[in-house]
Design brief:
This protein is α/β, with parallel strands linked by helices.
Length: 257
């Protein structure tokens, strides 16, 4: 069974981490995947090669979504690669995690975080509307930092905005048969989560407050996204799917026994 055969997908921020895993998984499920990147050209080409070597279809698209013309540059490359086909699946994954403490936060840092993590997915989705057919999927990536009080305030605020955007878009696009959902990972072992390895014991400490007792891997998140992209998720919209392995559920769990 190839659940996404004949469908197309755009994954933003797909040259590494969760985005890379999602691109590879959607391609394995049969989709033609546009692998978006900003600066990691070599890494993006490696993702495309991995997909095509496995018999899938993919192409790379470069655009800096932090710039005013980034969205139009992205869609010029996307539409050239799609060659007249619709865009069935949009994964708004591209994001930055700045760890500047609140007392040292500047307007420039805040605005850069907001530009990539909120403004970009809002207008990427808007620009995608003419290409999205009935049965289309929009999947946004948030974070469990929206349900806990953590140190990365400006990042958490941005991800909270993404979840609000998801609910609003789900209502707006429901009449077109397009579903819009959010996936909220917890700590995932990627380049973005380098803080997990910043000092001895951090990774183990986070695993200890996770019900399933380990740090997430990119493939864990890709599987959830693949479900939401499939026909099996046709009746799910406006939802925030927690994919954290049960991070911060409370006291107890495997490490309390």
């Amino acid at each position: 069974m190839v659940p996404l055969k004949g469908r197309t997908a755009l994954v933003t921020g797909a040259s590494r981490g969760i985005g890379r895993a999602v691109a590879v998984r959607l391609a394995a499920d049969g989709a033609l995947v546009a692998v978006h990147y900003s600066a990691g050209e070599t890494a993006a080409k490696e993702v495309v090669a991995e997909i095509t070597d496995a018999g899938g279809e993919a192409f790379a698209v470069r655009a800096d979504l932090g710039l005013d013309d980034g969205v139009e540059i992205l869609f010029a490359g996307l539409e050239a690669g799609l060659n007249g086909r619709k865009l069935d699946i949009l994964i708004n994954n591209a994001a930055i995690l700045d760890t500047t403490p609140y007392d040292r936060l500047t307007r420039d840092i805040f605005e850069q975080t907001w530009a990539i993590n909120v403004v970009a997915p809002l207008f990427v989705t808007q620009r995608a509307l003419p290409l999205l057919p009935e049965g289309g999927r929009v999947i946004n990536i948030s974070s469990t930092v929206t349900r806990i009080a953590g140190p990365f305030l400006h990042y958490a605020m941005a991800k909270g905005a993404v979840e609000v955007m998801t609910r609003g878009l789900a209502q707006m696009l429901g009449g077109r048969g397009v579903t819009v959902n959010t996936v909220t990972p917890g700590a995932v072992d990627t380049d973005m989560a380098a803080w997990l390895h910043a000092a001895p014991g951090i990774k183990e400490g986070v695993a200890s407050i996770t019900a399933l007792g380990r740090i997430g891997e990119p493939d864990d998140i890709a599987g959830v996204i693949a479900f939401l992209a499939s026909a099996d998720a046709r009746w799910v919209t406006g939802a925030a799917i927690d994919a954290s392995g049960g991070q911060w559920l409370g006291h107890g769990g495997p490490h309390s026994r």
